Amino acid sequence: MDIQKISSSLRTASQKLALQNAQIKNRVLSEVADALNANRQSIIEANKKDIDAGRSNGMSESLIDRLMLDDKRINGIVESLKIVIGQTDPIGEEIAGWKTPNGLNIRQVRVPLGVVSIIYESRPNVTVDAFSLAYKSGNAILLRGSSSAYNSNKEIVRVIKEALSKTEDGIPEAIELVEVREHDHSDVDQILNAVGLIDVVLPRGGKKLIQNVVSNARIPVIETGSGVCHLYIDEDADLEMACKVAENAKIQRPSVCNAIECIVVHSKIAEKFLPMLEKTFNGRVKLHADQKAIKYLKNALPATEEDFGNEYLDYECCVKVVESIEEAISYINSHNTKHSESIITESRSKARLFQSMIDASCVYVNASTRFTDGGEFGFGAELGISTQKLHARGPMGIKALTTTKYLIDGEGQIR
Q1: How many CA atoms lie within 13 A of 132 on its CB side?
Q2: What is the 3-state secondary structure (H, E, C) of 121-163?
Q3: What pLDDT sits at residue 182?
Q4: Contact 339, 227 (CB under 8 A)
Q5: In contact, 84 and 381? CB cutoff 8 Å
Q6: Are 328 and 341 in contact (CB under 8 A)?
Q7: Which residues, other chains included, contact 311 with Cβ-Cβ below 8 Å and sequence gap of 6+?
Q8: Of the candidates 341, 314, 327, which has an alpha carbon nearest to the alpha carbon of residue 270?
Q9: Is the pLDDT of residue 30 over 90?
Q10: Alpha-carbon 131 to chain mean position
Q11: Per-residue pLDDT reduced to its tens digit, 261-310
Q12: In terms of Cα–Cα distance, which of 67, 323, 360 is closest to 228?
């Protein structure tokens, strides 16, 4: 990969994009949405090649589900793109403005970051999400997907670039996809060292990918976290609700980062709740339980230290019993990835204590962690879930790809 050549092209595209207004960008993105809809069959056929290769290589069915595209999911991709189109363009938004005593007019306005790169695993829908948010916010984007999804990503990018080429004012150079070779990560190293060429990189995937990017990048990183999410069942919980939420948060789609990986239970309701939980799961989830929990479960395995803080991304979950909400908070804060945590309780004071003390980007009361998602938050698409505390945190929509600058108008003032 010639990072100099690619980044130069992307930089030029970002400068062109910065001059386009919302009406132009929305019209172009509408053409892209129509093209994706019209080319769904070729996208599904390319995706099938990735799925067949994944199964041949022993990929788990939960990860196959993460990779898979069908008509329903393409409908979702197109709908997400339309939501992005309908959102207010943040570029040029005046965040603050004032006049100094010497007559200078100062305005703080929102501007694009410039050239963005995202390094991500599986989930080819991210290709469209990342592109649409970047384009709408005036940024050019370099996509580096995984080899397991390369055929899908390649076809999606082909459709996008063709639509941009055919549309008046479209800028096809605003999106590029790295040609991925299995077991070759030299391109990732080039991205992470592209000082002055790429403005920011976002890793989106498992713990190993994220750690590699955070540890080795010489350019700015917006860190997205792996999802070791917890559900705490308080002594004042509605246990029927707790079972319903646990089932959704673990089983609905276990391969995603906002699915729970550990259920923490107050000791006072463990004897009653854990058999209810096991009945609700009905053999669909392999449970790894600590010494206090396992005596109330018929089919659980003894948990090891590796189970606590582990991201299974599958139909597995660990269970821990605690003596107080304070112990639950301490345990979760020491084992989570700052992603999403939830408490089930009828106590308002405990709910507020949990939300105040838990260190995570999203903290729920009496709801599933599965709602941590750009679409569910009304963003349409998302770049990922930021688990850091600077620049952006939580589901990242359009504004996460912007920064600000100050515009100062004077009349000859000198200092």
Answers
A1: 32
A2: CCCCHHHHHHHHHHHHCCCEEEEECCHHHHHHHHHHHHHHHHH
A3: 74
A4: yes
A5: yes
A6: no
A7: 206, 207, 226, 227, 228, 257, 261, 337
A8: 327
A9: yes
A10: 14
A11: 999 999 999 999 999 999 999 999 999 999 999 999 999 999 999 999 99
A12: 360
Residues 125, 77: contact at Cβ < 8 Å? Answer: yes
Nearest to 65 by CA among 239, 315, 277: 315
> 46: exposed, middle or buried (C-beta count within 10 Å: 0-12, 13-18, 19+)?
buried
Q: Which two tokens stand for residue 224?
A: 């997205």
Report the candidate in 39, 13, 32 with the shortest Cα–Cα distance to residue 152.
39
Q: Which residue in 275, 283, 252, 277 sits closest to 263, CA to CA?
A: 277
Q: For 46-100, write each residue's pLDDT tens digit.
A: 999 999 999 999 998 888 998 999 999 999 999 999 999 999 999 999 999 999 9
Closest listed residue to residue 404, CA positions, set 87, 98, 113, 14: 113
Kindly state the tokens that stand for 277.
């939980």
10 vs 173: CA distance, rounded Å? 6
Is residue 103 packed enough to be buried (19+ CB in 10 Å), middle (13-18) or exposed (0-12)? exposed
Residue found by looking up tokens 């549309």 in the block: 167
8 A C-beta contact, residue 301 and residue 286: yes
Q: Which of 123-137, 150-164, 180-194 has the lowest mean pLDDT?
A: 180-194
- Helices 40-56 and 150-166 cross at an angle (nearest 10°) of 160
> For residue 27, with 0-12 CB atoms within 10 Å meaning exposed, 13-18 middle and 19 or more buried, which class applies?
middle
- Which tokens go with 25? 């960008």
Q: What is the SS3 string spanning 275-335?
A: HHHHHHHCCCCEEEECHHHHCCCCCCEECCHHHCCCCCCCCEEEEEEECCHHHHHHHHHHH
Q: How far is CA 241 from the centre of its chain?
A: 27
Which residues, 6+ apart, have CB-to-CB distance to 33 below 8 Å?
Answer: 78, 81, 82, 85
Distances in whole angstroms, Cα of residue 368 to Cα of each of 228, 266, 297 = 14, 18, 23
* CA-wise closest residue to 290 among 301, 281, 280: 301
Q: What is the pTM of this model?
A: 0.82
| pLDDT at 381 (0 to 100) | 80
